[in-house]
Amino acid sequence: MTTTAGVNTASATPLPTATTESVRPPAGENRAGWFFVAPFLALYVLFLIGPVLIGLVISFFNTTTVRAGLGDWVGISNYTSVLRNSDFWASIWHSVLFTLLTTPLLIALPLLFAILASRLTRNRWFFRLAFFAPYVVPSSAVCLIFAFMYTPETGLITNAFGWVGLPAPNFLGSEWGAWFAVVLLTLWWTFGFNFILYTAAIQDISEEVYEAASIDGASPWQQIRSITVPLLAPTTGLILLLQVLASLKVFDQIYILLAGGPDQKTRPALQYIFDTGFTSYRGGYAAAATMVYFLLLVAISAGWYLVRRRQQNSVIG
Question: What is the pTM assigned to this prediction?
């Protein structure tokens, strides 16, 4: 006679449950983590947090860069002067215009060339190196190279218009010629960073997805449109935010190549702050302008974060 042995659930030993104490790392690991992070935190406070706090204090004083000390307390008068100054808002518009001109191109073109490079079967490394190499060139060298190419009558880019029978614009002497010049320079110089980000994201897409689509009869264009581009949406969102912030902080290429000209028609916000603080020697006013522009960039970052957070919550919900 066969019997079935029952399980005595009352006497069974309960499984251990995870508690806060059991998952908390040992105190030694916490100390080691703080030890390794300490050098970065010290540099972060010294060179980032510290200057921001100093600039905030200076913005409430009539500080000048040619006399020691903070100067006289002026309260928020520096801020009211900044907000009422038409030159300040014109410089912000120039930064925004530069962002509008460069951001779409620096998203679409790196995406296109990263997809094309990923489709190559041979010498893929050469194209990746060629596209990324200009990004490591110093801004001063890039501006000098393009200044030679924009030189009237002898410059390479100027002569290229003549080769196709078109009149060459005055790159350095007219407003829209100057914008064309600095946008073209920026595209060539910073193209590689976004290209590498897209390349890394494409490598994370499984080949099995493309193989399954190919078996189902999808053409390469259909694979790119229906698989690659949608799966790169998070990377595109990241690149969009980074590119907008980087473009709004433009300074080097416009200052070196154009000096904000002609007639301050291309002067961005950072150059306006630089000119005010180190040419007009109005340190307190320049600090107030810096704080206003800093808050603008923080607002853009926070707004983008909230939008992305809401999108993620809607997808999860």
Answer: 0.84
DSSP-derived secondary structure for 172-241: TTSHHHHHHHHHHHHHHHHHHHHHHHHHHHHHTS-HHHHHHHHHTT--HHHHIIIIIHHHTHHHHHHHHH
Q: Dump pLDDT digits (tens) for 160-216.
A: 888 888 888 888 888 999 999 999 999 999 999 999 999 999 999 888 888 898 888
Q: Choose among 190, 176, 185, 174: nearest CA to 97.
A: 176
3-state secondary structure of 73: strand
Domain that residue 159 falls in: 103-248
Q: Is residue 55 part of a domain?
A: no
In-domain check, residue 148: yes
For residue 12, give the H/E element and its range: none
CATH of the domain at 232: 1.10.3720.10
- Is 33 a domain residue? no
129: in domain: yes
Q: What is the number of domains present in the chain?
A: 1
For the segment 250-289, what is each residue's pLDDT rounded down to a tens digit?
999 999 999 988 889 999 999 999 999 998 899 999 999 9
